[in-house]
Specification:
Elements lengths: L2 H7 L1 H24 L2 E3 L1 H11 L2 E4 L9 E2 L4 E2 L2 H7 L11 E4 L4 H12 L5 E4 L2 H7 L5 E2 L1
Helix pairs in contact: 1-2
C-alpha cells in the first residue's frame, strides 16, 4: 500500500494530527506575535518594585467592579488604539497590561508594541490571579 493510499484511507487521522500539532505550536507563535512577555504575580511585583513598572488596566469599565491594582491606569482595551497617545509619556518604563483573567492583556501588549513600547508584559491570569494571590488592590 502506498503512502498516498494510506493517507487517503486515514484522512481523519492526518487531520487530527495536523490540528493537534497546530494547537501545540500556537502558544509559541502567539507569544512571538504579541510583542510582549507573560509575567506572573511575583514577576510583576518585582518589576513594580525594581523598575517602576506601569500597571495598565485594560478591562472594560463595566468589569472593574470597584477595584483595581494599586496605582494602575485604566484604559479599556476597546479604546487603547485611540487613546494610546495618553500613554506615550510612559514609553521608557516597563508596562504590565492586565485584564480580568489574562487573555486580553496579551492583545494589549501587541497594541502597546505598535505604539512604540519596548518593555511590555501581560499579567498571567489577570486581575483574578493577583487577587487570588492575596496581593493588594485599591478602589477604582
Amino acid at each position: 500500500m502506498s503512502f498516498l493510499a494510506f493517507a487517503e484511507k486515514n484522512w481523519m487521522l492526518f487531520a487530527t494530527l495536523v490540528a493537534s500539532g497546530a494547537m501545540l505550536v500556537w502558544p509559541l507563535v502567539s507569544r512571538r506575535v504579541s510583542g510582549g512577555r507573560e509575567v506572573g504575580t511575583l514577576g510583576a511585583t518585582q518589576l513594580i518594585n525594581t523598575k517602576n513598572a506601569l500597571l495598565l488596566d485594560v478591562r472594560e469599565t463595566k468589569e472593574i467592579g470597584g477595584s483595581k491594582l494599586p496605582n494602575a491606569i485604566h484604559v479599556p482595551l476597546s479604546q487603547l488604539a485611540n487613546r494610546g497617545a495618553e500613554l506615550t509619556k510612559y514609553v521608557s518604563r516597563p508596562v504590565i497590561a492586565y485584564c480580568d483573567r489574562g487573555q486580553r492583556g496579551r492583545t494589549a501588549t501587541a497594541l502597546l508594541a505598535k505604539l512604540g513600547f519596548k518593555d511590555v508584559y501581560h499579567l498571567q491570569g489577570g486581575f483574578k490571579a493577583w487577587k487570588d494571590a492575596g496581593l493588594p488592590v485599591q478602589k477604582a
